[in-house]
Automatic annotation (TrEMBL):
The lineage of its organism: Bacteria, Bacillati, Actinomycetota, Actinomycetes, Propionibacteriales. This is Nuclear transport factor 2 family protein. InterPro entries: NTF2-like_dom_sf, SnoaL-like. Residues 10-105 form the SnoaL-like domain. Transmembrane segments: none annotated.
Amino acid sequence: MKEKDLDRWVERYRKAWESNDPKDIAALWTEDAVWYRRPDEAPVTGRDAIVAAWLEIADAPGETTFEYEVLGFGDGVGFVRGWTTYLTNPPGEFSNLWVIRLDKDRAYEFTEWWMEKPR
């Protein structure tokens, strides 16, 4: 994996986040992928289950802004730090840390940590 591959995956993730199109979401994952929405919870397992879980908690298009930086990558794993701002009422800001394990252009494991910025 190269940094551009990881960037491309994050950009596709962001597109899926904005569209909530099941095809965009499914295109991110291998069939047997696991998504740890929190590292201390059981993962969502399998592409179809991930799409369904995503849509259950989907944000509305235009509801957030997102910036990120790649912290590191290699041997099929990438580390991304992100900043999410919710523009809703009340607004909120979150810091994110993602660990993404890729097989070509699809994630087979994704773990995220998110912390709300105190107001």
